[in-house]
Amino acid sequence: RRDRGLALVLTTHDRGVVSRGADGGAFMMAGRAVETRAAATLADAAHPYTRALLAARPRRRPLRGPRPRLAEITGRVPLPGEVISGCAFADRCAAMTALCRRQAPETQRLGDAGVACHHPFAPRREVALP
Ligand code: SF4
Fold this sequence. Notes:
The chain has 130 residues and is α+β, with helices and mostly antiparallel strands. The chain has helices at 15-21, 48-55, 98-102, and strands at residues 24-29, 32-38, 107-110, 113-116. It has a four-stranded antiparallel sheet, with no helix packed on it. A hairpin with a 2-residue loop joins strand 3 (107-110) and strand 4 (113-116). The longest helix is centred in the middle third of the chain and has 8 residues, at 48-55. Iron/sulfur cluster is lined by residues 48-49, 87, 89-90, 93, 95-96, 100, 105, 117-119, 122.
């Protein structure tokens, strides 16, 4: 790729592959890139979905005790072709507000990243669904 000046697009669920071998990554959800950023700043992810994905990666098994349970992203995944008003992650997002339900978020620039979220970096909180 480097020798020929080509781009290579690789689809993976393995963060290590992105960290070690890519210049950057686009995190996809429901057919949309919800966060794009340089590989070197993956740990600074701002979108709640990206952060949840990164938190769900397997951990090394401890020498003693039970294997830690993998973190999950609970809730319903949108069906292929489903028409979604508002943010496609709203049903599963702890930072969801009424604005998220009403309006799909535009992508905004945050440093080197592009993030499609109304409340990037929002602290996790419990939200009663309407
Ligand atoms: S737009 Fe709202 S529901 Fe969607 S990821 Fe951001 S905070 Fe969560």
